[in-house]
Amino acid sequence: xxxxxxxxxxxxxxxxxxxxxxxxxxxxxxxxxxxxxxxxxxxxxxxxxxxxxxxxxxxxxxxxxxxxxxxxxxxxxxxxxxxxxxxxxxxxxxxxxxxxxxxxxxxxxxxxxxxxxxxxxxxxxxxxxxxxxxxxxxxxxxxxxxxxxxxxxxxxxxxxxxxxxxxxxxxxxxxxxxxxxxxxxxxxxxxxxxxxxxxxxxxxxxxxxxxxxxxxxxxxxxxxxxxxxxxxxxxxxxxxxxxxxxxxxxxxxxxxxxxxxxxxxxxxxxxxxxxxxxxxxxxxxxxxxxxxxxxxxxxxxxxxxxxxxxxxxxxxxxxxxxxxxxxxxxxxxxxxxx
Length: 338
Known about the structure:
Layout: E1 3-5, E2 12-14, E3 16-19, H1 28-33, H2 38-50, E4 55-57, H3 66-77, E5 86-91, H4 106-120, E6 125-130, H5 139-152, E7 155-161, H6 165-178, E8 183-189, H7 201-208, E9 211-215, H8 237-240, H9 248-264, H10 269-278, E10 285-288, H11 293-300, H12 309-319, H13 327-330
Parallel strand pairs: 3-4, 3-10, 4-5, 5-6, 6-7, 7-8, 8-9, 9-10
Antiparallel strand pairs: 1-2
């Protein structure tokens, strides 16, 4: 397991991050994502630690706070030293019915940080992320609230999640102009069947030295190949929760390329899909969610795969985005400055 610095910071995180979204669900969307109990959570956290993962991600909204509670309990049950793990959580989603119980206002961010610390049973959060852009709150207000948490010692680093490129860039500019705690990471969807991030977000992250945490690297399980040919994946998650959205017409040929490359490595298509992400320079860490220890162990083995140049070219050809303006203009081969 390799370690990488998170963006332009001195914080080292494992190239794979364990995502605790499957913890504690009972009904609704969280029941569809995962319904793991404490014993199962403990086993998965132990397996992640044993594999070399030091990075764990959750959110206040996952299973209405139960994910944070169970992750914190697992760390205590397993006797994990606080210095050995990096804990990330998120804020912005609705945690109640009132208008001030959601979003990225100073009031909500400060209140939810305290609530997350209590649920996790920790003295500080290593990475506190704004889960979604809040159009009702000035970005300045959000960043100043995060800066206050860093200065108070409740939070060590700050990040964003699911923000557009222009929104991230605006936040970076405001933070630099006001000398606020810097944004070190963006958590975003990226996969072989969902490469939209490459148009604007990836170049911006590389330019500004912001780390990328990838969620849903297997596109909700689609890239395992179990949904190809119109299959419902033996009642897999995508059967009831079509998220993230997938262009299956474009995806079908890609699955065949994945299977071909996987066969060469005596691996599964899913491992190849994760390995491809780990080969992308903009990626800092890839989040793995799992319901079983065996599933987690299988995906962790993606770190052992070294893809050859021709294999990367095959995967790129089978998944690349259609060229859009201004890309076709900027990529002119006769541009000497490029």
